[in-house]
Predict the structure.
Amino acid sequence: MNIKENIKQFFSNKSLVIFVAGALFVLLFLRQCNRIDELKAKVEMTEKDSQRNFNNYLASKDSIRIVLAKNGNLISEKRSYEFDLNDLQGDQKELIEKYKDALNLNRNLNKVNTLLTADLKIKDTFVASTSTTKIDSINTKITFSKFDDFGKGNSRDLSGEMLITKNGSDFKYSDATFSINHKINLMAAIENINGADQLKISTSYPGLTFDNIENINLINTKLNQKPVKKGGFAIGVGVGYGINLNNNQIISTGPSIGLGLYYSPKWLRF
């Protein structure tokens, strides 16, 4: 039997033609569904990249906001950045390098999730207690001391001394040494507000302000991406039990084995 006769016999069998046409329709439909799912995934990734870039733009224009907390402390807050390690731009690369050098971070920032920085400024005015010790007829030592406990882990301790030498009707000051120790407690948090992260930092140390605060969240989209199951065609051997259509066009149930072309959508793959 030649090929032409086989084709003629195939098309003369209406049941077989309908079965094959239906199978092809189902395969094409599943393939189209798979393409739609892949397109949705790409659109979702594009939207995330667009939102990230927009948030970074807003963060670059943001300035520190001062909020009064219920306990009377001042809270400084500022919008956070989010950088993708696989897509660092020029300015972002320079900023990341600053943290690498200062903190001795590994070059690939492996296992580094967040970068933080804060510029502190302290404005102090206080009166220290003094005491004098006469060394001899012309030399006198003055000592200074001042300790303040501001509570919640914040304190200031000042100590110092100075030598005063009398020279006729004049006085000469020399060997002045001062030491001041600050103990400062900072509290910080990263809070998501309206879909964007913001760094909040506060302290109860009096006179301390923040000239600048910065938070950079690091993500690795390639590393964190879930493996995508892809649908597709395959040729293989099938063994199973189900409904069979034999050569006599009789439908029956039972075991079956065969070689064929298969299509599996990604949601059926594991």
About this structure: Residues 3-43+229-268 form one domain. The helical segments are 3-12, 14-61, 90-103, 221-224.
